[in-house]
Write a structure and sequence with these properties.
mainly alpha, DNA polymerase, domain 1
Length: 92
């Protein structure tokens, strides 16, 4: 049996460039409920859980049902992933 030398856990953003897809997913989800999101606002929330962000974004736009925003965001993100995301570009 061959010895395992390394294991890579892709914590979303390690191997694929998913940041733009997540931003667009949030932006489109909020647009669907009458709100908007700038890239600058989005970057203030990177690293927080999707549920936390959905609550914060729902509050920002005055929409009482954060669960709907989260569900729409996840649906859009799934679509983007099915369409294909770019690999992370190595910078040496």
């Amino acid at each position: 049996m061959e010895e395992i030398k390394a294991v890579i856990f892709d914590c979303d953003g390690t191997l694929i460039d998913s940041e733009q897809a997540h931003f667009e997913s949030w932006r489109l989800s909020l647009n669907n409920h009458g709100g908007d999101l700038t890239l600058e606002e989005y970057f203030l929330h990177v690293g927080k859980s999707a549920e936390t962000n959905a609550k914060l974004f729902a509050e920002k736009i005055g929409y009482p049902f954060f669960e709907e925003i989260l569900k729409k965001k996840e649906s859009i993100t799934t679509f983007f992933k099915k369409m294909g995301l770019r690999p992370i570009q190595a910078h040496y």
